[in-house]
Amino acid sequence: RALPELSRPRSLSDAAQVDVGVALISQNLSEASANTTARPTKVTAAVAAAVIVLAIILVACWRTWAARPSGQELLQAQAPTAKRWPLILAAAAAQIVSGCVYAMGAWQDALRDALQVSMGDISTIVASTFIGSVAAVLGGRCFDKLGPRITLAIGGVICTLGYSLIIIAILWSHKLSPGLRLMLAALGSTCAGYSSVSLLDNIVCMACSVSFPSDKAAVVGYLKAVLATAAGVWALLWVHIFKPPHGPGLVAYLVFAAAISLALVLLAMIPMERLPPSHCGPLKGCDFMRLGFVIAATIVLSCFDVGVSFFYSKKAISETPLLGYICVALASLPFVLLIPPLPNDEKPEEKQVVSQISQSSGGVKAVDGISFRKAACGLDFWLIWFAQFAVFGSGVATNQNLALLLESAGNKEAAGLGVAMFALTSSISRMLVGVLSDRYSHILNRFQWIQIVAAIATVSQVMVASMSYVGIMVGVLLAGLSFGTFFTVIVPVIVEMYGPKEYGVILGSQLACQAFASVSICKVLLPAVYNRAAAGASVCLGPSCFRASFAGLAALNLIGLLGSSLLAMRNRSSMPMHRLHEDQ
Q1: Which residues are CB-neighbours of 133 under 8 A, at least 6 positions away?
Q2: In the prediction, which pLDDT does 229 show?
């Protein structure tokens, strides 16, 4: 008898409340139903993508196994081409390690929160990443004296130590004073950055540059593309596997980075060497097929990174660890070339010809070159130094501060997309320009490529200075294009300008400008403008946070464009190596 009274509304207002309650319940049920239907859709899409990627990997492995050598070819393990691809792929593995430090822009805000520091302190850590490049000449000296294998081992140990110091600073952040934990993190960033640039990236590129004299830009371009793509891979792993609240956090990410860095470098040490002149012939036949395969795999990986980051920034997909695992599988795809023994691509009677070609086309012992002291006395040395200062400074300022840039522009979630876009344009430009500058140097020489780079860098900084979402993304796109092209051209152009006599020292001293650019731009310019616009607040929002900084960087690259034009005019008919040698 009580139930009918409880269920019967006592007035019209009570009846209205019951209707509202029923409507709310039905709305919640519909939202829950929508969520349950949306979640399987995302999972289904991710599983479908995984199936497609695995199918591609299986087809590639099958094609590689189908092209395996015959029994007679297995006996020719010491053919002139046998050491080429182990060297190239070992260098690519070292570049994967080096790329981790360039992904700091994706987890910069997490590091700030973990250390409980300000924007100025984070800028100190970011600047410390490349301040060690002031001693890049030491890495070059190690390359000249100790060889690439021992130098690579030293780099792997220092890189692992650097990430370990950052981990200690985070874990002991509540026990250490702010100054001490900042010093530990900055020291760790310096170790990771110096080893990644001066002891890994530069070393493997120099080893391949002198080992492939006829195709040095193409091989170095591929390696630089792997470096750029690796930055997007590490950023994607952070977002979809390690980033809180769904992931284990920044400490786990850094532990993983340290372990992978040490393991890959130890494996890359085995085939790392400067190839003898008999192995330095031009790439042809199956070598070009393999180069096309690894370039295609790198492009697929870059497009995958950008696609995932784009849909994530649009909130079309959520954090999905499966996407990170697919990314790792794609990054491992070029290494299927190591599964079968490499066949002999030349006939026995061609070995003598290969040796002669390698020595006449610029092998290690064919040209002596000039000393570092003589090179530094010429104007060309400082013109290319300043052009690198401007391009590197603007590229790092854009890439390493993407999270804060987009936070100020009101679209913080797009930081991963920005890093992936930078990696995409940087990697594709490195591969294309490397091949084009080798094959079509009679149409467009390397100095003219440097002019194009300076012009693109100027436009990119103008776009970033607009501080709109579209302008920042276009600027990131162009910054990656100029960044990748320049660091593909700089490695071969230095050996062509000054010869291999003290190649490591001269290239290392050129790359020392990265330290000065990192300090003056990332430590001084950007924090000063940011803190002034913040007016005492810990976080700055609005276009004034970075606009003046990137307008100044646009002017800096414009001066670099004028300097690169003068450089091209001075080297139109002869190289500094010949002019300075004649002056002796």
Answers
A1: 193, 194, 197, 198, 511, 512, 513, 514, 515, 518
A2: 83
